Model the fold of this input.
Amino acid sequence: MLVAAAVCPCPPLLVPEVAAGAAPELDAARAACSDALGVLAAARPDLLVVVGTAEPGGRGPFPQGTPGTFRGFGVDVDVRLGAATGTAPERELPASLAVGAWLLERTGWADAPVEGLGVADTLEPERCAGTGRELAGRAGRVALLVMGDASACRSLKAPGYLDERAAPFDAEAARALGTADLAALRALDPALARELKAAGRAPWQILAGAAHDTRLTGTLLYEDAPYGVGYLVATWS
Done:
């Protein structure tokens, strides 16, 4: 059963070495993510699963100990998903899960085994719900670290340019995540989310599926759109 969840954004800019001189601009987001992971630890899960979107080569399950890296962003920063297991991994973490692994390392996570799951940002809502239910059944007490950004169309300089639909979409997502509104999360439009480059839609709907038979309540810890991209941090417990 799902006992807790943390929703965090997944830009590599969260890693200070990647952000370089702009690092202080996301200090509040980093602090909120740390607080969110504290809620996960307090739930005393038997298993933590980090969920995020990925390109085809980064989809599917990732076992504990899988490495990730930010060398592709020009910095000498490597991470690992949880503790080393002594087993040679077959592939590296996709960027979203690497950011999740970095957050876990930053907070010294040692509270439960950790696994990862990379999914397509086009995953249909019904499959998201089914995936969430499967994850919730993986252990007696399951926690999710859900990595995903809101729209990337909040300003003229945003990656997706300015789209007037972006702010209302992000506001509804923030409200739904902050109140653990499962129906509202399930109702997020995949086509609109893709047009707005909102990579968090599928992971959020996986979370809704995992929480379908729980009574978790939500808290919104952070909401902002630096660089024209919506970043949300929330906890469910």
